[in-house]
Amino acid sequence: MRWNKTVTMVEAHAEGDVGRIVTGGVLSIPGETILDKLLHINNVDDRLRRFLVNEPRGCAQMSTNLLLPPVHPEADAAFIILQGDKAHAMSGSNSICLVTVLLETGIVEMKEPETVVTLETAAGLVKAVAKCSNGKCERVTLDMPPSFPLLLDAEVDVPGLGKVVVDISYGGIFYGLINPEQFGLELTTGNARKLVDLGCRVQRAIDAQLDVRHPEIASLSGLSYTMFVGYDNEGRMKGATVVPPGRFDRSPCGTGNSARLAVMHARGQFAEGETRIARSIIDSEFEVSIIGTTTVAGKASILPRISGRGWIHGIHQIGVDPTDPYQLGYMVSDCWGDAFDLLN
User: Fold this and answer.
1) Helix (H, G, I), strand (E, B), or coil: what is residue 242?
2) 154 partner at 20 to 30 Å CA-CA among 8, 108, 119, 251?
3) Residue 196: inside a domain, yes or no?
4) Residues 130 and 156 in one domain
5) Does 91 qualify as catalytic in the annotation?
6) Quick one: pLDDT at residue 61?
7) What angle do CA 170, 176, 177 make, to 5 degrees?
8) Is residue 97 annotated as a catalytic residue, yes or no?
9) How confident is the model over 209-221, as pLDDT tens digits?
10) What is the extent of the structural domain holding 88?
11) pTM value?
12) Residue 246 vs residues 160, 179, 211: alpha-carbon distances, Å
C-alpha cells in the first residue's frame, strides 16, 4: 500500500444523520478566520472537499467535518462542514456529532454531569452543553446563532411547477422553507425521492430569482438548503431538509429548525420560552425552543436552542494510491441527484 494522502476520521451520527469528523491528516486551511477558510474551500481550492466527500471515499448520505484549531480565544474547537455541493457555515446535527466525538475520544476533557464546549463556526460561536454520564455524552444542547426571517410568503416561478410559495429564513445558514401541501405530498419516507427532486428545483429557482444574503456578513449569501415543513399525525413539528445535490437530512436538522422557529415566532406560532419536539423524515427527534430575542441589523431575531443525541459508530481511515484514476472522486446522479449541475 502506497498512499500519497492519509486522513483519519471518527464517524458519528446525530439522530440518524451521519457526520464524520476529520481528526488527523489535515494540518490547516488558508485563512485568518474560520469564515476565510470556508471561503477558501468554496472559492479557491475545493480539492480536499472533493477528496473527502465524493465517491469512492465518501457517499451522498453523510457530511464530513474538518476539525480545526480555533481562532477565537473563547472557543474550544472550530469546524467546517463539507457536503456534496460545497462547504457550509453551520450545522446543528454535525455540531452534535462533533461534540460527541470530542468528549468521548478525549480530545476535549469530559466532565460529568455536564461539559460546556464552545464551537467556532463561520457563522459565529455556538455554545454546546453536553449531558455526560459514565463516559458517555448522552445529549448535546446547542445555543444556535441568532436566527431571523428574511422573506415571508415569497413567490418563485419554478419551471414545470409554476408559482411556489416559500419563506426565506436564516438559522446559521439560509433556508427556503416549503409547505409540501402545495404539491399534495406528505412528509413520509415513501415520498422522499419526489420531495428531494422538488426541493432541488425550488432551490435553483430561489437562487436565480431572489437576493439572499446576511445583512451583516455579506459573504454568507445564497441559499444552503430547502426544507419541507409540516406536522405529523400527533401534531408535532416535522421537517425534511434537502441537502444538495439531492438527499434528505436524516436528522430533524438544527439550522433548519432554527430558521423555522424564526418564521413561526414572526407569525405568532411559537413563543419565547416554549419547547417542542421536532421530528425528521425518519421520525428521529430534537427538542427545539426559543430562549430569547434580539435584533440582527435591525431585524427582529430569535435565539434558538436545539437539543439532540449523537453516537459514535466507527473509526475510518482513507487514502489514495498515486495510480488511482479517481484522486478526487466522482459523482453519479443515481445517488447524487443534480451532481452534474454542480460540477459544471
Assistant:
1) strand
2) 251
3) yes
4) no
5) yes
6) 86
7) 100
8) no
9) 999 999 998 889 9
10) 6-143+311-343
11) 0.96
12) 18, 18, 23
In a shared domain, residues 251 and 217:
yes
What are 237-272's pLDDT values in tens digits?
999 999 988 889 999 999 999 999 999 999 999 999
> Measuring CA to CA, how many Å separate 340 from each of 39, 119, 139, 140?
22, 34, 38, 36
State the Cα–Cα distance between residues 238 and 285, nearest whole angstrom.
Answer: 9
Distance, in Å, from the CA atom of 273 to the CA atom of 123, rounded to the nearest integer, reads 24
On whether the CB atoms of residues 83 and 244 are closer than 8 A, the answer is yes
pLDDT at residue 336, as a whole number? 76
Cell numbers standing for residue 153: 410568503
Query: Is residue 71 classed exposed, middle or buried when 0-12, 13-18 and 19+ CB atoms within 10 A define those classes?
Result: middle
Q: Looking at the structure, do residues 203 and 252 belong to the same domain, yes or no?
A: yes
d(CA 142, CA 130): 9
**pLDDT for position 339:** 53
pLDDT digits (tens, 9 = 90+) for 199-209: 999 999 999 99
Residue 70 sits in the same domain as residue 117: yes
Beta partners for residue 324, in sequence order: none
Q: Which of 200, 253, 280, 289 is catalytic?
A: 253
- 344's CB contacts (< 8 A; 6+ apart) are none
Same domain, 96 and 161: no
